[in-house]
Amino acid sequence: MNAPCDIRFAHADASAYVTGAYPDEEFWDDLRRVTDGQTTEPLARLVIQASADIDRWMLARGVRWQAPLRGTLHLARTNIFMLGGGKAMMNALYAAAARVGSIGERIVRAAHEVGMTLPPHLRAY
C-alpha cells in the first residue's frame, strides 16, 4: 500500500485539487512557525515563490493529483495530494526523464551540432 504523499505549495485560488488560496505570506508565516524562526528568509521565500507552479509542472510530467479530501483534514486548502502516493510520483518523474534523455546526453548532442569538441570526461554520455 502506498502512503499518502502531499506537497504544500503557494497558490492564488482554489482548483480541482485544492479548496482555496494559500498565499505566499501565509506560507511564509507557517514556515516560520514550524521552524521556530530558524530558517533563511531569502531561500525560504525563493522556494515559496517557485512552488506556485509545481502542480502544473508535475502534472505535465505525468504525476496525477487527487481531488481534495473533505471533512476533518485541514490540509485540503494548502496541500496537493498525489494519486498513488510518492512511489507513483517517482515512477512518473523517472518516466518523464527517460522520455527526454539525460541532461548529459542533451549537452553532448548540442555540442556536436555546433561543432564543439568536448573534453574526454564528458564524452561518456
The gist of it:
The protein has 125 residues and is mostly helical. The protein contains 5 helices and 2 strands; from the N terminus they run E-H-H-H-E-H-H. The protein has one domain (6-100).
Tags for this model:
single chain, 125 residues, mainly alpha, two-stranded antiparallel sheet, 5 helices
Describe this structure in words.
With 125 residues, the protein is mostly helical. It has one domain. The protein contains five helices and two strands. The chain has helices at 24-34, 41-50, 54-60, 85-100, 103-113; strands spanning 6-8, 79-81. A two-stranded antiparallel sheet has the order 1-2. The longest helix has 16 residues, at 85-100. The mean pLDDT is 84.
Lay out the secondary structure.
Layout: E1 6-8, H1 24-34, H2 41-50, H3 54-60, E2 79-81, H4 85-100, H5 103-113
Antiparallel strand pairs: 1-2
Helix pairs in contact: 1-2
Structural class: mainly alpha
**Rg, Å, rounded:** 19 Å
Spatial separation of the terminal alpha carbons: 37 Å
Q: In sequence order, what are the helices and strands, one letter per element?
A: EHHHEHH
How much of the sequence lies in strands comes to under 5%
> What spatial order of strands do you see in the largest sheet?
1-2
**Low-pLDDT segments:** none
Mean pLDDT: 84
Summarize the biggest pleated sheet.
Answer: 2 strands, antiparallel
- The count of DSSP E runs of length 2 or more, i.e. the number of strands, is 2
Helix content estimate = 40-55%
Indicate the overall shape.
Answer: extended
Domain count: the total is 1
Number of DSSP helical runs: 5
